[in-house]
Write the structure tokens for this entry.
Amino acid sequence: MEFDKIAAGRSDAATATQDAGPGIDRNASHAQEDETEIFGLSHRRGRDKLDIAASWATIGIFLMLAFTAVYTMSLILIPVTLAVVVGMILGLAAERLSKLGIPRVLNAVILSSGVALVIFLIINALAGPVAKLAQQAPDFFQRTSDRLMPYLDRFKWLHISSETFQGSSMSISTLLENSGNVLHVVSTSLTPAIVQILIFFAALLLFLAGRLSLRKTIIMTFSTRTSRLNAIRIINAVERVLGFYFATASLIYAGIGLAMTLIAYVGGMSVPVLWGVFAFVSSFIPFLGVTTMTIALAIAGIITHSDIIFGLAPAVAFFAVHMAVENLVFPAVMGRQWELNPFVVFLAIIFWTWMWGAVGAMLALPLSLIVMAIIDELFIEEKAQPQLPG
């Protein structure tokens, strides 16, 4: 009897195992499917990360090649970029002249001639002070040497003495050799400058003459209506911000130039008009312009006057006037909608100065304004959408 009970128990256990077998197989199958799905997800995530890394690497390589091209082609890109920026600044004036019935080609001739006339008047105004400064150069350097030597004598490791700044006798052959080297340097520097000036005026004239057709071509390159509307808004915003900013800034900075001329005259500085022009031009370069002007005024004042307090007075006065204008007058006139991040502007100035030198420093602010206008139009929501005619 006990043997029969044990056999029956084994039979029941086998039957139970056979009944549970399909369930166990199904669970194992589901587990294998889950493992396969997890492996597939991790594999896809790994491939997505690789795709993202490849995309960023491609963008980085493209930017490096673009920056290399911009640096290498600076002889052409500097005047062309400057012409486009100046042409967009004059866009509002060109539209007003067109409304008066003046043809576009004549508009371009008038505006480009006006730019050339302004440049000529500035050069003509500076010719006299520069010539006077050149005549006073020997006395200026002698006074500079006399004033700086007491300070330089304290640094014995510089090995600088008063004889360092005194020229020795020079023979005719040496003089001719040095003059030849000077002429070579001047000619090699002057030729690219003349070429860039010609490229600038030609590009400015052609850009102003074909501004509307170029604008239409850019807009029609987009296929959808929304993209064309965005292109219209971006072009209008860029022209508006450049035109309004530089028209207003020119008037404000002209006031700074006049104030600097008065400060230089009262402070006993030589050629006050030259200091005023430098103050006007340098004001268009944020941070670096006022810093350079203040340091130059401090050095010139110390050299000019025996009293160090009176010598530093023009630099302090200019810095105070410039800070008051930048922090009080400029925001009140321009409004907060044109406010740029100072750190971003500073980085832009450093970058474009490294790429294109002094002209790049002057173009840094216009290019920053263009980028700001594009970002505002593309990424700020709830803007009023203009309607295309028809």
